[in-house]
Amino acid sequence: MKTTTAIALLMMTCLALTQDKDNTFSNPTVGFSITKPAEWQFVTADQHMENLSRTHLNDQQMQEAMQKYATAPLVVMMKYPEPYDDLNPSFKANIKPLGNLSADDPVAIINLMTGPMAKIFKDFKIAKPASETTISGLKAAHVSIHYSLQIPDGREFPTASDLWIVPRGKFFFVLGAGTRQDGKTGSREEIEKILSSVVIEK
C-alpha cells in the first residue's frame, strides 16, 4: 500500500535545499539538480500537501492512505502561482530506496508501480507503454498515462501524466509530470525542457 500510494501521489498534478538565481534546485546530499523555466514557480511543502488534500481518488482506502503516507518530495514546481483555477502544469522529483527491486530493470519497476492505478484514477488508461530510456546518462524507464483528475467541487480535468524511474545505487529517483491532455495550460515541450535539465550524480 505504501509503495502504490507514493507513486500515485507522484502522478498527480498539482523544498528545495538550495535554489539559485538561475532557477536551479540542487540537493548535494542525494546528488540531484534540476532547472525550472523562468516563469514557473517552486512549490513549498505546505503548498504541496494542500494541493494533495484537494484531489479526490476513486478508491476511498487510497484516499485515506494518501493523507497518511504522503511525504515531501525533493522538489516540486508548477507553472502558475496557486491558487490556480485549472489544471496547473507540474513537475516533481522524489527519491526512494530500491529494497528488493532490481536496478537493472527500471521498466519492471515502473510496471509494478503503475499496475494498481487503474482503480485509483477515473478514466485511467496507458497512453504510452513503459519503455527504457536514459536520464542524465543513467538507465531509466518512462510511461505516460491519461486519467480524469477529480476535485471536490465536482469538476474533472483531462490529465496527461508522465512518470520516469531512474535507479542509482541502492535508490531510485521518481520523476513525475502532469499537464492537461489538450495542452491548454501548458505544453509537453515545457516538460521535456525541464526533464532535459535533470542532473543526477553517478
Overview of the molecule:
With 202 residues, the chain is an alpha+beta fold. Helices cover 23% and strands 38% of the residues. It has a seven-stranded antiparallel beta sheet with strand order 4-5-6-10-9-8-7, with helices on both faces. Strands 1-2-3-11 form a four-stranded antiparallel beta sheet. The model is unreliable at 1-20 and 65-70 (pLDDT under 50).
State the helicity in percent bands.
10-25%
- Strands ordered across the widest β-sheet: 4-5-6-10-9-8-7
Note the total helix count: 5
Largest sheet: 7 strands, antiparallel
Radius of gyration: 16 Å
Estimate the mean pLDDT confidence. 82
SS elements, strand count:
11
List keywords for this structure.
seven-stranded antiparallel sheet, four-stranded antiparallel sheet, 38% strand, 11 strands, alpha+beta, 202 residues
